[in-house]
Structure formats: structure tokens, C-alpha cells
Amino acid sequence: MVAALAPGTGPRPAQRHARPRGPEETGNRLRDPGGDSRMNPRSTDTQESEIRRSSLVTRRFLWGPRFWFIVTAVLALALDQLTKWLVLRYETLHVPHQLLGDALRVSLTMNPRGLFGLSYGPVWMHYVLPILVVIVVIVIGLRSSDRWFGIALGMILGGGVGNNLIDRVRFGSVVDFIDMGIGNTRWYTYNLADAFAVAGVIMILAHEFLGWGKNRPMAEGPKSTPVPPVSGQS
């Protein structure tokens, strides 16, 4: 006769080995392993603040005076060099080509002097002085807080670089081709770089003495739509 086994002394079913649970399985949801910020309102607020700050900085640059200063200078330089390339390619030196009769002609000339054929000292001065002017314009333009002023300085910079840093280095002279006048009364032959530089100076004078471009709030581009608060936040 088999003796009765005492309670609790018989064979026990195989026990499963317990696996340690991580914080994701123990109910700790304060930190979502997948990076879901819905469980962390502070993280959402920080991300939204960074997005707004980045968007504001971008708009201020794209619509600010520095941006227009750089864009204007690049466009002025590009137009100046493009027209000079076309004239050098298709025109003959000192052979006028009428556009609007004698009032406006294309007459290719190589000018070893300064603006509108004016001379302001030895030959080396025609290299050194414009370079100094270009440096000053760049410094002032990058520090400008006025869009009108920035555009004007950009026109001066584009013209100065086109004439005095590119033409003189490549040819030793400036490529002029715009010939205006009536009959034998002609204005100095010039180019688009000269026109941009003069227009920029006129804009600055009008800005300072006539108030053009002043007292106008600088647009910062289209305003962003406010981000609605996340549900569950106060």
C-alpha cells in the first residue's frame, strides 16, 4: 500500500523562468521608447518653440535688408557681365550700331579710365580705390537694417565688382558700349555697371534727403498660422 503523500510534497509542475521586465513593460509610460512626444507635453512645447524660432529667423533673413543687398548685388553683376559678353561677341570695336536712331546706340569701346571716362589719378588708383570702395560697401551692406538702403548698396556693389574687379583684371580696361546723345552731342559711353552704381547713389541720396523708403515697416514675409495647442495641455 502506497503511503499517502503529505500535502505539498508531491511533484510540482514545471515553473516558467521569469524574464525581467523593462520599464516599457512595467507600466512606466513617462518616457515613450518610440519617441512619441504625445506622452510628454514638455517635449512637444520645446519642439514647437524651436520650429517657430527657426521659421522666424528664416523669414527675417529672406525678407530682410541683408538678403536684398546680396540678391541685388548678384543680379546687377550678372546682368552687367551678360550684356558685356554679348557685346564682345557680336559687336565690333568703335563701330556704332543704332538701336533708337542716334539717340541710343551700341558702340563698343575699351575704357582704361574710371566712371564715364573720368580719370582720378595714376593707373594704379583705378585699381586700388575701387577695391577699397567695394570693401566699405560690403561692410555697410551686411550691417544695414534698411531694405531700401540695402538694395541701393547692392546695386553699387554689383556695378563696382563688374567694372573694377572683373573687367580690369581680364582686359586691363572697362567694357563700355551704351552710347546716348543727339547728333554729334554725345554723353560718355558707359555700361550697365555704371548705370547701377549711379542709380544706387541716387537711391541713397533720395533716402537720406527726401525720405524715400523711410518710415515703412519692413515686411518679414507671410505670417505663420498659430499652432493649435495639443489636446490635454492647459
UniProtKB/TrEMBL annotation:
Q: What role is this protein assigned?
A: This protein specifically catalyzes the removal of signal peptides from prolipoproteins.
**Active-site residues, Swiss-Prot/TrEMBL:** 176, 194
Q: Give one GO term, molecular function aspect.
A: aspartic-type endopeptidase activity
Region annotated Disordered, chain positions:
1-51
Classification via HAMAP family: LspA
What keywords is this UniProt entry annotated with? Answer: Aspartyl protease, Cell membrane, Hydrolase, Membrane, Protease, Transmembrane, Transmembrane helix
A GO CC term assigned to this protein in UniProt: plasma membrane
Q: Which EC class does it fall in?
A: hydrolase
Q: Which residues cross the membrane?
A: 61-79, 124-142, 149-166, 186-206
| Cellular compartments annotated | Cell membrane
Domain of life per record: Bacteria
Q: Which family does it belong to?
A: Belongs to the peptidase A8 family.
Q: In which pathway does it act?
A: Protein modification; lipoprotein biosynthesis (signal peptide cleavage)
Q: Which gene encodes it?
A: lspA
Q: What is its main location?
A: membrane
Give the membrane topology.
Multi-pass membrane protein
What name does UniProt use for this protein? Lipoprotein signal peptidase
Q: Where is the composition biased (Basic and acidic residues)?
A: 21-35
Reactions it catalyzes: Release of signal peptides from bacterial membrane prolipoproteins. Hydrolyzes -Xaa-Yaa-Zaa-|-(S,diacylglyceryl)Cys-, in which Xaa is hydrophobic (preferably Leu), and Yaa (Ala or Ser) and Zaa (Gly or Ala) have small, neutral side chains
GO:BP terms for this protein? proteolysis
What is any Pfam family matched here?
Peptidase_A8
